[in-house]
Amino acid sequence: MGWTAWDIPGWHDDRSLRDFYKGALHPEMINDIAMYKASATGESDYARALRASLEYLLAQRPASTDQWWSLTRYSFGSEEELYGYLQDLYDFFYGDRTEEPIAP
Fold first, then answer.
1. Of 60, 78, 81, 96, which has the most beta carbons under 10 Å away?
2. What mean pLDDT do residues 5-34 have?
3. Residue 21: how many other CB atoms lie within 10 Å
4. Residues 49-82: pLDDT tens digits?
5. 72 within 8 A of 80, measured Cβ to Cβ
């Protein structure tokens, strides 16, 4: 069996995490990602789960563009675009990137 979102750390336990991926990364919301930064970088269990989930996705690169579309309904042209965007998102939330990432 292939990868599914259920493989993301914290997916089973945290509805807010599932809502982030399905909502914040949906085509209608993806370019408004800055409004999620405060909750993503806080000290809550959700913030820790979101960071761990992004670290997992970036380290493992498990999702194809088709699998990502099934999860978020956002269509990336390639896996390089997908994981490049996720890296920019991670850097915006947790690194030194000051500009919010813009999805391709």
1. 81
2. 93
3. 19
4. 999 999 999 999 999 999 999 999 999 999 999 9
5. no
